[in-house]
Amino acid sequence: MHITKEDVLKKLAKLNPNKAQGPDNIPSSILKQCATELAAPLATLMNRSLQEGVIPSEWKLAHVSPIFKKGKKDTPGNYRPDDLNRLQLWSDAWQLRFNAEKCKVMYIGKNRNPCEYKMTSKGERITLESVSVSLEKDLGVNIDSDLKFSKHVSIQVNKANNLLALIRRGFTMLDKVSLSTLYKSMIRPHLEYGNVVWYPRLKGDEEQLEKVQRLATN
């Protein structure tokens, strides 16, 4: 992938000058007016970022403005994030409606200030349930509130070990080809499913996963 000066020019030309400035405090009107001068250096920065696989920390910042609902303005629960409303509008437009009764709220990180979130279901506003525990399973991946995924690794390793023990008990003799086939079809899927999300970043989690393979080959 390569970003050209013309690509950047097109994006800058589409900026809305009436929008508020971002965390860099540069008004969009200035970016639009100086598009010709800024296009080349911005394209260079973006290509460098793509080549090195590094995103500048400043690019990860954003302003999120909550929308006031009602009541006292100094109460966090009386505000709702705009993103949730946009998400529901998108789902309604594409007829991929969320089941609000099954939606939950999980607070990520150490500083968790509980707020009230609502979604519309069958014409009624429903308050979403807050996840009281630190683990929630979604699409086969166990998500914890710290995003370390150590609990997910432990759960999947236990499943893999149980299946490995089942194979050992069920087969008195196994050659390398048969063991490899059983391992790839029954055990490895549990260890690799969704790993683009939970790929282990802790040494202990890596060792747990590698231990399963060592046990299978012993």
From TrEMBL:
It comes from the Eukaryota. This is Uncharacterized protein LOC101854880. PANTHER family: REVERSE TRANSCRIPTASE DOMAIN-CONTAINING PROTEIN.
